DNA sequence: CCTCCACCGGAACTTACGGAGT
DNA sequence: ACTCCGTAAGTTCCGGTGGAGG
């Protein structure tokens, strides 16, 4: 008892007085720093485009493209914050507001509208109403006070893929129906050829202006990391090679700043956990493995049963040195279902589940044409099997034969 | 040069669910 | 109590595909 409470005390102490961190929150992806290194031009350009807002003129709708972690969201937040600060000092006779919606999280028309309403302090039920009714309430809330509202739709491609562009169409044409207020849309996407999938009518109004964010280079990432490290870490705890390594690793992933910051933060956490006084190269290496591993386990935890079975089927085929094609996976999958005494899904559905595995990044699925022998998908797992087993073992529906699978693996 | 495999993937439809409005 | 609504997951149906092998 004494030993345990002593250890808990140690843990608490370590959290309270860190050897490593000054302020860990500064490394979180949603933290917007006072300056955005190597995005000065973008900040300026976006500010120019949005500036008319402070005069009460509706800015053009803007579309921002760029891969993940290139600063799109940060720049947008940053500029909007400055504009709102400015507006606050000017005492305008209208309200300047913004609503940020992440469409990857809210990827249905309904939930996007719900969060738009909520940002106007308009309560709406999370289900039950019709879309037109929801839209009406949004407009009513908007008209309560004269206002200019920025609607930021982050990862808007996810919304369109899921639910079509109806809502986008309606939003782009809302202004003529508003008497006292105005809406400007900022669309953000990391799908570079997203607008091709849009209705031309939507495209022309939504993307009146366009901006493209290019990936950070390794050197630029280093600057970003240095700036954050200064405020997040205690002085002198980072050994020299840490920041360049994080930058290089992230640059390999198309210059993803979020990735770089994650690496740095987790490396710090690992160092802290083992009571090291410095963050070393080895901590970064281990951070890389840990991030990936945690991601896999988390994804697996929330994956539906049939998705898991599809994954296991692929795994078994790879172990048996059979090329996993859709057909092969499906027949193994059916066998697993029989063992579990559950109804298998259709071939068509499994084909989709395989695509989902690809999308999540647990596997890659490539369509191959084998001429005489038809067209199929060639599936390949892209994560270590250890992490897969780790993620699956909690599922008690699988425990009965997961042991067998494990043994077969050895 | 044609055929034909073994699937791909779009689209419409079904079912179940949670809840609103009346 | 009843009807209406949107979403998620899954099924059914079906036209399309492109190159190995005849």
Descriptive account of the structure:
This protein has 410 residues and is α/β, with parallel strands linked by helices. The protein has 3 domains: 40-213, Rossmann fold (3-Layer(aba) Sandwich), CATH 3.40.50.300; 216-300, Orthogonal Bundle (Helicase, Ruva Protein, domain 3), CATH 1.10.8; 303-409, Arc Repressor Mutant, subunit A. 53% of the residues lie in helices and 12% in strands. The protein has a 5-stranded parallel β-sheet with strand order 2-3-4-1-5, with helices on both faces. Strands 6-7 form a two-stranded antiparallel sheet. A hairpin with a 5-residue loop joins strand 6 and strand 7 (375-381). The longest helix has 21 residues, at 281-301. It binds a DNA duplex (22 and 22 nucleotides) through residues 108-111, 125-131, 133, 163, 304, 325-327, 345-349, 351-352, 355, 367, 369-377.
* Share of residues in strands: 5-15%
Q: What's the total helix number? A: 17
The dominant shape is: globular
Distance from N terminus to C terminus (CA atoms, Å) equals 40 Å
Secondary-structure element string: HHEHEHHEHHEHEHHHHHHHEEHH
Low-confidence stretches: none
Secondary structure: number of strands: 7
Mean pLDDT: 92
Helix fraction by DSSP (H/I, runs of at least 4):
40-55%
Give a short account of the largest sheet: 5 strands, parallel
Strand line-up across the major sheet? 2-3-4-1-5
Our count of domains comes out at: 3
Rg, nearest Å? 25 Å
CATH class placement of the largest domain: Alpha Beta
Determine the CATH topology of the largest domain. Answer: Rossmann fold
**What is the CATH homologous superfamily assignment of the largest domain?**
P-loop containing nucleotide triphosphate hydrolases
Find the structural class using helix and strand composition. Answer: alpha/beta
CATH architecture of the largest domain: 3-Layer(aba) Sandwich
